[in-house]
Q: What sequence folds into this?
């Protein structure tokens, strides 16, 4: 049977070649991870998340519009299920404590990543990049301001230093992004990269997992939104010029 | 409140010489399941797909898809 006919026959039965390869990779990855080495868990991840990633990047275009809608709905339900489950885990693990605990991979870190990606993605899909940048930057600025005030409310020195260093730049950039998107986009991208070095966020070789995940948490909440919004604002400029 | 979408795709498929769902799907570049979902009213197609289907059957989009006014809209219209 010719490859085209084989592909068509598969689709007629409701199977897609990408889906079959993905399922095979998931099973092979799981089998190899529990029988040979845990590193093969990466194969499972490639099977589970690879097709979605490649579709997002535009390398695979195998879904029609109805399938895309089904995929979006499924992803949204997965997001809600994962979010609720992680919240329950955080509450259960830290019951009676006033901190978020020190698990190997804190559920709060995963929850923060999921929420940041969701918020940024939603804003960029729904609004013009300038408005999206305004909202995301303002939200992060206010978040950091509240965090700094709660941490150093009775210490004026550290309060002003941290608010000026972290919260105020976010809020300032939020308002300036509307007026000078390209300049602020470049500055945000540079600030995101600079923050990684300024706060020593690249974990050193041999760092403990706890320390590594702590740093990743800060990356999610500080340089990541800065850099993403910087890229969005620069991308907007490029699109406008193309038009 | 938006009205229900009445889909006449199946009728036009039969009028076009008993075109199968699979054949129609191939001709407009979607999966058979998508055609099934549209015919069942489970999925509302994009404007682009609706236009492709209308062009294929040589009819206006409104012939394939009709918006049935809801009660609220009907009452509102009468009041005006």
A:
């Amino acid at each position: 049977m010719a490859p085209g006919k084989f592909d068509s026959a598969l689709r007629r039965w409701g199977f897609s070649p990408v889906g079959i390869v993905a399922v095979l990779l998931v099973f092979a990855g799981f089998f190899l991870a529990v029988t040979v080495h845990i590193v093969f868990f990466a194969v499972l991840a490639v099977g589970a998340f690879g097709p979605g990633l490649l579709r997002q990047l535009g390398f695979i275009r195998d879904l029609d519009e109805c399938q895309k809608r089904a995929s979006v709905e499924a992803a949204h339900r997965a997001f809600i299920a994962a979010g609720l489950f992680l919240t329950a885990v955080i509450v259960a693990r830290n019951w009676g404590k006033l901190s978020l605990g020190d698990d190997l991979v804190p559920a709060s870190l995963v929850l923060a990543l999921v929420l940041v990606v969701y918020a940024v993605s939603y804003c960029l899909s729904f609004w013009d990049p300038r408005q999206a940048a305004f909202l995301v930057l303002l939200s992060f600025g206010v978040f950091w301001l509240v965090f700094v005030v709660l941490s150093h409310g009775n210490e004026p020195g550290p309060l002003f230093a941290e608010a000026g260093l972290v919260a105020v730049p976010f809020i300032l950039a939020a308002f300036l992004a509307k007026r000078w998107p390209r300049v602020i986009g470049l500055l945000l991208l540079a600030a995101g990269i600079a923050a990684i070095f300024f706060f020593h966020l690249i974990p050193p070789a041999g760092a403990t997992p706890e320390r590594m995940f702590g740093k990743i948490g800060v990356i999610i909440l500080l340089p990541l939104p800065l850099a993403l919004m910087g890229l969005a604002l620069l991308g907007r400029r490029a699109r406008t010029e193309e038009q | 409140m938006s009205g229900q979408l009445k889909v006449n795709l199946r009728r036009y498929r039969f009028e076009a010489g008993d075109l199968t769902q699979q054949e129609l799907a191939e001709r407009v570049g979607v999966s058979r399941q998508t055609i099934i979902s549209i015919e069942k009213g489970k999925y509302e197609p994009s404007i682009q797909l609706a236009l492709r289907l209308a062009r294929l059957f040589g009819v206006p989009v409104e012939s394939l898809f009709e918006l049935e006014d809801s009660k609220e809209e009907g009452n509102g219209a009468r009041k005006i």
Observations:
- Helices of chain B lie at 9-15, 21-28, 32-40, 47-57, 61-64, 71-79.
- Strands of chain B lie at 4-7, 65-68.
- Chain B touches chain A through 13 residues (CB under 8 Å).
- The mean pLDDT of chain B is 84.
